[in-house]
Amino acid sequence: MISKQETLNLSPYMALYDVLIPKDHLLRQINELVDFSFVLDELQSKYCLENGRNAIHPIRMFKYLLLKSIYDLSDADLVERSKYDMSFKYFLDMTPEENVMNSSSLTKFRRLRLQDLYLLDLLINKTVEIAVEKGLLLSKIIMVDATHTQARYNQKSPKEFLREKSKSVRKAVYQLEEEMVGKFPEKPTSNEIEEELQYCRQVVDVVETQSKVAQIPAVKERVNVLKEVIDDYENQWSYSDDPDARVGHKSADTAFFGFKTHIAMSDERIITAAIVTTGEKSDGQYLQELIEKSKEAGMEIETVLGDAAYSGKDNLQYAKTEEIQLISKLNPVITSGSGQRKIEFDYNKDAGMFVCPAGHMAIQKARSGKKNQNKNQHTKYYFDIEKCKVCPMREGCYQEGAKSKTYSVTIKSIEHEEQAAFQETDKFKQLARNRYKIEAKNSELKHPHGYKTAKSAGLFGMEIQGATTIFAVNLKRIIKLLSDKE
């Protein structure tokens, strides 16, 4: 149950916050910038207003999640820091002497209160609304890209992952307290997951009851992570074999196991839309949805910047229909061919045929593929195989024993021809130089805010992490822009 009336903090120690939390502190600035009552409006239906014990206020619970994203902390470390960090207590609307909650309440809040809530869109739209109200979104340009996040469990079996985390705890203890060698229980030898779970519980118990270094942060943080993993598995909230994570590719040679977040960002570096998917999804197919979400959030869009992944034929047609400039280079296969040809043939415009370097003209041609499809058609030119067999220039051109010799050319669509011409203009090149901004934003999400690795398993958990992280990053950017404006 949540109370219908707001409670007043009447502690005699509240004045401490005016002394300890300066005006330019990030958490004070966020508190003054955002009216968090929208959280209560969205979550009120998830609580009973008449019966039961008073629950921890949903705004405070949401602020806990926001702190977790801003400072990249585990649930246990977040609650522990809230005991003594006055800036945290101030942000959470707590009195200085007030006791903190149990960290397990955060897990229950995510599980029970945030289901069926489009938190990602809600929080992004809120920050865009604030930016528009403050007169910060002046450009009509957005940039699009996708950033990958490694799954928490990285394709390890449950036993392997639990073993890795318990080993990390033991190693941290041994480095600081050699006397603990031999005091931990015997490692399990079977493949039963229950034995591994029991061993992990025993490791936690030994550290907390027998070690002198249990309260040192280097040890305590690893113990808290191990506790979270045990709790996740026991409650089937996060599985060690993540059911939603998939293998995606960053390049032809490198792969990752996890998720993708497809992002649209304004020229002022405020994220205006995001979509979280499994790792194998391609970037280009989400362009139209990102544009539509950005418009719904309050953006006016005239130009979109993206890499070659967004220059598909359907995206070019969409941009043309919506009268949007798409600054996205065509795939080199379309503009320059496959790039695998060692020998280029010449085109005879009078005959309408290609001529090989030896001077032999194609004897016929045929078109493959259908019109009005997303894939371009090809024209295949056929050469006299008998001439190729005895040609003095056949090396590298004709493969011995081949039954035919052909030369294929992609037929560019009207959209591709227009885009190929546009990307050679100075205007295109000038705008394309701004794409570095979204790469920097991806880096900001990953490194200070922990978006490099998923905090829990499953697409739902990833969406919550994405929502709170992007909300935090956007608020920081808005505060910076307001500061510069002054």
Tell me what the structure shows.
With 486 residues, the protein is an alpha+beta fold. It has 19 helices and eleven strands. Strands 1, 2, 3, 4, 5 and 6 form a six-stranded mixed β-sheet that branches. It has a three-stranded antiparallel β-sheet with strand order 9-10-11. Strand 5, helix 13 (313-321) and strand 6 form a beta-alpha-beta unit. Helix 8 packs parallel to helix 19 (459-485). The radius of gyration is 29 Å and the shape is globular. Mean pLDDT is 85; it is low at 236-240.
Topology:
Elements lengths: L15 H5 L5 H8 L3 H7 L14 H14 L3 H10 L1 H6 L12 H10 L5 H15 L7 E10 L7 H19 L16 H18 L6 H18 L11 E4 L5 E12 L4 E8 L8 H11 L5 E3 L7 H9 L3 E3 L4 H5 L9 E3 L4 E3 L8 E5 L8 E7 L1 H6 L14 E7 L2 H9 L3 H7 L3 H11 L12 H27 L1
Parallel strand pairs: 1-5, 5-6
Antiparallel strand pairs: 1-3, 2-3, 3-4, 7-8, 9-10, 10-11
Helix pairs in contact: 4-19, 8-12, 8-19, 9-10, 9-11, 10-11
Mean pLDDT: 85
By DSSP, the count of extended strands is 11
User: Largest sheet, described in full?
Assistant: 6 strands, mixed
Question: Termini separation (Å)?
Answer: 43 Å
**What is the N-to-C order of secondary-structure elements (H for helix, E for strand)?**
HHHHHHHHEHHHEEEHEHEHEEEEHEHHHH
The percentage helix is 40-55%
- Quaternary structure classification: single chain
Unreliable stretches (pLDDT < 50, length at least 5) are: 236-240
Radius of gyration equals: 29 Å
